[in-house]
């Protein structure tokens, strides 16, 4: 009499066929990770060596001992920490306001029926498809008319109505926030804002975490609009300040890479903070849905 624990020949054959597929998957994932991480590693290599080492053929692929020297050159050449403070203020304020305004608009689009909803959402999608460069001239004229040229708030307010953020959260809320919970909240006397704050927001934390990363990175890396609108040297952001390192014919690329490395560290910190909530929320949803 055979027991249930006995493995049949067919089952063993299926497992042997499955192992090569699993190995191939792991190899492909490892290659994808290496390709993704290599630009960051190459930045560190260049930041720790000299420009002469970078021009070697074949290029030097090992870490050097010139990182502190390159960092000192960056700090002596530009106002790194002053521009970084301006960028931190703009990125943090923009991220907080984008999360609030976009989630509020997305909640209204997803769960409430009002006149012109489809037309407004369709218009939003159209604007999402347009290149951002088309808005530069109208935005500058508007900032000039209201006297905000040269001020940091000229970077914050145009970024608040993020079409992608509203679209992303609207799709998430439509599928992730049950109508039954909202109906129960209405029966208990909850108005629009209380339904949004007490019912919807706690259920869309993973989507908010992703949008926070997206909004912060966009605000941190923005270069064209700050270059145009920030005419005050005291209000220059980090990306504009770093661009001053890459001028002339004798550019010190090791110094440039050291500045890029220093500017990238806050992005790594922000990603590690918000990605944990995004992954945890997505995993929780997967477990509940299984």
From TrEMBL:
Transmembrane segments: 23-45, 84-107, 119-142, 148-169, 196-217, 253-275
Domain of life: Bacteria
Chief location: membrane
Keyword check for Kinase: no
Assigned GO CC terms: plasma membrane
Keyword Nucleus among UniProt keywords: no
UniProt cross-references to Pfam families, sorted A to Z: BPD_transp_1
Domain ABC transmembrane type-1: 84-274
Compartment(s) of residence: Cell membrane
Keyword tags: Cell membrane, Membrane, Transmembrane, Transmembrane helix, Transport
Membrane-related topology note: Multi-pass membrane protein
Gene Ontology BP terms: transmembrane transport
Family: Belongs to the binding-protein-dependent transport system permease family.
Name by which UniProt lists this protein: Sugar ABC transporter permease
């Amino acid at each position: 009499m055979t027991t249930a624990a006995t493995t049949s020949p067919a089952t063993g054959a299926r497992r042997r066929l499955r192992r090569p597929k699993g190995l191939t998957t792991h190899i492909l994932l490892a290659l994808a990770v290496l390709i993704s991480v290599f630009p960051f590693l190459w930045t560190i290599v260049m930041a720790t060596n000299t420009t002469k080492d970078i021009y070697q053929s074949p290029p030097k692929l090992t870490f050097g001992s010139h990182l502190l020297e390159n960092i000192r050159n960056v700090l002596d050449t530009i106002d790194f920490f002053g521009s970084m403070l301006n960028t931190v203020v703009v990125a943090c304020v923009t991220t907080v306001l984008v999360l609030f305004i976009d989630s509020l608009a997305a909640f209204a689009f997803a769960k409430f029926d009002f006149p012109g909803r489809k037309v407004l959402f369709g218009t939003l999608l159209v604007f999402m498809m347009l290149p951002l460069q088309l808005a530069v001239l109208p935005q500058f004229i508007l900032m000039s008319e209201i006297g905000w040229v040269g001020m940091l708030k000229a970077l914050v307010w145009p970024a608040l109505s993020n079409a992608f953020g509203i679209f992303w959260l609207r799709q998430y809320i439509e599928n992730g926030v049950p109508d039954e919970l909202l109906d129960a909240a209405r029966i208990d006397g909850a108005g629009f804002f209380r339904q949004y704050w007490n019912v919807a927001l706690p259920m869309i934390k993973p989507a908010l975490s992703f949008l926070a990363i997206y909004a912060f990175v966009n605000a941190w890396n923005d270069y064209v609009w700050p270059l145009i609108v920030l005419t005050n040297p005291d209000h220059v952001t980090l990306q504009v300040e770093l661009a001053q390192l890459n001028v002339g014919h004798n550019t010190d690329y090791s110094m440039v890479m050291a500045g890029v490395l220093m500017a990238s560290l806050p992005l790594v910190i922000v990603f590690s903070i918000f990605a944990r909530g995004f992954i945890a929320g997505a995993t929780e949803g997967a477990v509940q849905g299984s």
